[in-house]
Every structure is written in structure tokens, then in C-alpha cells.
Amino acid sequence: LHGDKDQLVPFNQSEILHAALKSAGVETTLYKVVGGGHGFGGSKDTRAELIEKSIQFFDLKLRLDAP
Q1: N or C: which end of the chain has fewer CB within 10 A?
Q2: Is there a contact between 38 and 9 (Cβ–Cβ < 8 Å)?
């Protein structure tokens, strides 16, 4: 998750990291938080939606019984 209006950590840094990981064959996901600044203020997504996206990602990647 990265806000595309983040003025502390520019969004393009996440795009660069995402592209480098893909190029190295690493599974990667980047979710653009449209209108979100640092901390996601101003986002079109609600805080609850962003938390749910985070929970789903970590559940998928960190579950002990995951494939």
C-alpha cells in the first residue's frame, strides 16, 4: 500500500521497488492508494478498507498452513 500523493516518501519509489522485485522473479504486489498522502489521509479508500487489504495480504502470505 502506498499513497500516490505521499509527499514524504514519493510513490515512484514503490514503483521502482515493485519493478525491481518483479524483474528478479520475486512475487510482489503494489496497491496504489489513490489520493492518499503519507498515512493515507485524503484517500478514496476508507481506513477500514485499507486495513482489510493489509489483513488479507498478511493472511495469505504469513499463514502457517499457506501453500
Answers
A1: C
A2: yes
